[in-house]
Amino acid sequence: MASINLIDAFQEFKDAENIDRPTLMKVVEDVFKTLLRKRFGSDENFDVIVNAEKGDLEMIRRRMIVEDGEVMDPLAEIGYTDATKIEPDFEVGEELYEEMDIMDFGRRAILAAKQTLASRIGDLKKNVLVKKYSDRIGEIITAEVYQVWKKEVLLLDEESNELILPKSEQIPQDYFKKGENIRAVVRRVDMKNNSPVIILSRTSPDFLAKLLEIEVPEIFDGLITIRKIVREPGERAKVAVESFDDRIDPVGACVGMKGSRIHGIVRELKNENIDVINYTTNIQLLIQRSLTPSKISYMDLDNEKKHADVYLKADQVSLAIGRRGVNIKLACELTGYDIDVFRENEGEEEEEFDIDLEEFSDEIEPWIIDELKRVGCDTARSVLKLTPEEMERRTDLEKETILEIRRILQEEFEKE
């Protein structure tokens, strides 16, 4: 057997399709040169020829023909008489090329070569995977859910590489089923037990940034830039954008006609509220915009301590703070300032803390909120001030629905 078909002999060769051919040929060549060194002590006078297309391997031994009795180096030279036994026409001074049969190395040596080749190809595949995903960090990919566990989800990409979406990188409202395709951003590549682990994320600001880039051509083309994104996954996000073209309204371009561009992103993020604001270097204006949807009366700034005291009318305070303090927390992250909220006209009797009904949109259906607003209830306390009987008489809501609404609102105040 002068040549060996690698595709039949080494199953790992079939799995190495994503490894470039020159690299694979070099690995195969190195493995068999090691085999030669173990048997002959050197591989200097041997050529290992790999045909990557056919999967063939040939090993050629080169020796110079010398006069009988003048052989100084048996690896590099062969006597005339021995050479003519191989081919009668040889003459002294010619070079003898002899094909070697791999079976002559013995079963154990061939098995060791196979194991070494499998190990080397495995390492190559790991390196290819690490490089592929290291170059794609921050990019969105689509993968299929293969297994759902308590602490993480296992996904497969188009080449059946395993990807991990940890619970900490999932939006709280995420629910996945085996076989469905989901989108996530490549967060990082870790090494665990010498194997690459690709970590995905749906909570990273980069995920929202890439979704915006897909939906808003002006961002993709570089006409609008995203200056900063802060998120409370599944609840609220704030995006500061800036336009390099005076003719383009960056906020309008990101939101789209009647919210057409932002709606798809909101659905992807499980109804996460997204506030898109126009970035400015005027910190006072930036703080004002970052506290949207509330309207600020005035503020006191301390630029050295990066602190802002913001004063609002009583009905705007709950909007500025937001449910569970999310709105003001994100405003602080976006601006880099510590923001304290105060009610305007402190001399007046202080009103109780209240929360706008819109902040409960993830738990209370929009049509119910609209029905409550129709009877003049636009905050949580205004609803709780009415008795269940009065609510039932004034609205089209059933008693069970009213009791459930009251429970949700009361629980929120108990948390606060």
From TrEMBL:
Domain Transcription factor NusA N-terminal: 5-126
Domain Transcription factor NusA first KH: 202-279
Biological process annotations from GO: DNA-templated transcription termination; transcription antitermination
GO cellular component, one term: cytosol
PROSITE patterns cross-referenced by the UniProt entry: KH_TYPE_1 (PS50084)
Database matches in Gene3D superfamilies: 3.30.300.20, Nucleic acid-binding proteins, NusA, N-terminal domain
UniProt entry tagged with the keyword Iron: no
Tagged with keyword Cytoplasm: yes
GO molecular function, one term: RNA binding
Main location: cytoplasm
Superkingdom to which the source organism belongs: Bacteria
Keywords: Cytoplasm, RNA-binding, Transcription, Transcription antitermination, Transcription regulation, Transcription termination
Ranges of residues in domain NusA-like second KH: 284-347
Compartments, as annotated in UniProt: Cytoplasm
Classification via SUPFAM superfamilies: Nucleic acid-binding proteins, Prokaryotic type KH domain (KH-domain type II), Transcription factor NusA, N-terminal domain
Quaternary structure annotation from Swiss-Prot or TrEMBL: Monomer. Binds directly to the core enzyme of the DNA-dependent RNA polymerase and to nascent RNA.
Family: Belongs to the NusA family.
Functional note: Participates in both transcription termination and antitermination.
PANTHER family: TRANSCRIPTION TERMINATION FACTOR NUSA, TRANSCRIPTION TERMINATION_ANTITERMINATION PROTEIN NUSA
Name of protein: Transcription termination/antitermination protein NusA
Organism: Panacibacter ginsenosidivorans
Gene that encodes it: nusA
